[in-house]
Amino acid sequence: MIHSADHWENVYRSKNFNAVSWYAPHLGESLRLIEQLCPDKTAAIVDVGGGESTLVDDLLHRHHLDLSVLDISAAAIDFTKCRLGAKAQQVNWHVGDITRYNFGDKKFDLWHDRAVFHFLTDPASRQAYVDLVRSSVKPGGYVLMATFGPNGPLQCSGLNVVRYDEAKLHHEFGEGFQLMGSELSDHHTPHEHGPAILVLLVSSKSMKSTLLVRLAGSHGRPKTLSDRYLEIATTGGLWP
Asked: What is the mean predicted confidence (pLDDT) over 45-51?
């Protein structure tokens, strides 16, 4: 089961927005991928665990019209609403536990999660999360995940976390989700000298069988997620 709302209310009420370990002034890689995966500004996008993140600000600035943010902490949601001012009325806000939530009839073209899933240490909670993704993401939609990678910390915000590599994270979602690519990215926390490693996963939900794709080219530097998606979009297929 995901940890209680009381824990996260205390975190957000007791720490400055830029003092939490997952803080980043802007989620540049997420923004680039969302723009590439959802060029249609009417695409329905949900940011799970959006909290005090500025992702919603940047998506509004880029004229996305159908945005939703969910967080377990009402304090975090209220903070972001206050920061946005009148623009907050353009966003659908949800407060609740992701393992128990129901978006009703709402379906999303893209599901974004930066640093929620790795807090789900109980298999039943992870299954409930995946079940919600399955019922909430449109066929052919996208799931963009960021979790601690295999060399990341064992705890965050005083809680145990699960570390993932590409295969392990994709396995949690199972059949029906096509892995498009992943990469490792350094994230420097406010209180650590060394980086915590995040693994980014992009999956496409389909009714077809699962297909794993190669992560890097045969020569030269590893391709970024942006490189890989652009190649898929340009060629209409996967690189050899």
From this structure: 93
